[in-house]
Amino acid sequence: MKNKKIIFFFLILGMIASCMLIFQYFLSMEGLENIKTSDRIAVWTVTAVLLIYYLNIGSKPQLVPSILSIEKENNRDKDKPNISFKDVAGLEEIKEELQETIDFINNSHKYKSMGAKIPKGILFYGPPGTGKTLLAKAVAGETNSNFLYASGSEFVEKYVGVGAKRVRTLFEKAKKDSPSIIFIDEIDAIGTKRNLESNNEKDQTLNQLLVELDGFNTDETVIIIGATNRLDLLDEALLRPGRFDRHIYIGNPNTSAREKILEVHTNNKPLDRNINIPELAKKTTGLSGAQLANIANEAAIIAVRNKKNVISISEFDAAIERVIAGLELKNPNVLIEEKRTVAIHEAGHALVSKILNIDVIQKISIIPRGQALGYVLKFPDEERYLLTRRELENKIVCLLAGRAAEKIVFNEVTTGAKDDLAKATNIAMEMVCSYGMSSMGTLALDETYIRYNYDKIRLEIKNITDKAYKHSIRIIQDNLDMLHKIAGLLMENETIDSEELDQIFKDMNMPDYAT
Ligand code: ATP
Predict the structure, then answer these.
(1) What is the value of pTM for the model shown?
(2) Model confidence pLDDT, tens digit, residues 312-324
(3) What spacing in Å lies between the alpha carbon of 317 and ligand 1's midpoint?
(4) What ligand 1 atom has the least distance to the C-alpha of 88?
């Protein structure tokens, strides 16, 4: 659009100049008689070219063709990553599973002579930051294949046909550069279930992807790896045999995998002799590989900031807090009354967590970080794969303890519990809709049922959270002295670590509220 305006401007200038040169033959215009014929011809030619060009761009709808023509030139990032399975810590069973695919690429003749077809589509699914991209790159590295990265969202366009064209170009390129690995991150951006509300462009893109997946012949060694955080959203057609038929779940690492990931990300860093990687792995339960990599990097940055030669445990502790709770605010302007409310709120969480034995508390703080004015840093004390109904209920009791403490001490509640309420509601909703843990019955509720019966479901959720809130109130009322003790210490020192908290609880005879 901007180019068109510029061309128009020069075209007008050219036309004025041309007209003046023509009129000069009939009217006498001083100064123009001396212009050479070759210069006159040049002015008329340039004006004619501008006119033709301007009329041409004016007559065609430009947007779609221009996008498509750029598409052809667009040299997609392709490289041969020098990443191998050695760089992917843990995930041993997944690496084993992928060995067959690697063997197919490295010794394709063996399989082809047997008439065997290798699964061409592999789907990695699981939470963010667990190493899906890294693993796909490692497959390319192990097989010396070209790695073509694409993100599902880059196929999403307004104009019908553009996404499909992009898919075609990507596959053409992969076939030309075979052996190659196509990696489509966030494949759900184009591969979600089709329904009546679907839009035409998205459907065309997905159809093209299906066509390309079906279209490989056995001479081409092209493997396509998709990655998503939401397998449940994908269209059935994408998942059927012959397409993405191998689904590999990549979850957050367990203790031993966390240990290995931390080792990979610290082996090029000077560590203090007292650093105990297995201890660090225990302190980071529930974190993803990406978060662990981030912690190792943050610790190194903090060590430089502290002018240290080696990274010590205090830098790692600071890095863990930084990654989990966000950036510490320097000189925050928090009113003293608000600070006291935050201290009571956080003391409520810590007290109830400790009494119900939910997670191991590492630190309580009322120093604002990120958007939070205070926080309780805690991790599950062991790897858990199953949770009982009682444990889920107790988690909600802990989440609502901040609000309960505010209510008891100030007889007033604040906005500080927003995040806790969202998390508590979410757990209760899962209990009702997914785990069959309510009077709705032992069944999972599908989306359509939830949509049409939301009032009933909401009532069930409310029953769970109301009961948990009452439980929280009871625990805090029975241990009010303890609550004030923790909050008082927080007001004094701003933080309390696990040993100090244990000290406060040491001589107490705790009543058993967990039942
Ligand atoms: P997303 O779903 O958000 O795209 P992802 O699962 O693709 O995330 P990656 O991009 O592969 O995650 O991982 C991010 C970074 O985390 C990697 O570059 C790497 O530094 C680190 N990381 C994650 N898992 C591992 C692992 N198993 N071993 C070593 N590093 C890891």
Answers:
(1) 0.75
(2) 999 999 999 898 8
(3) 22
(4) 28
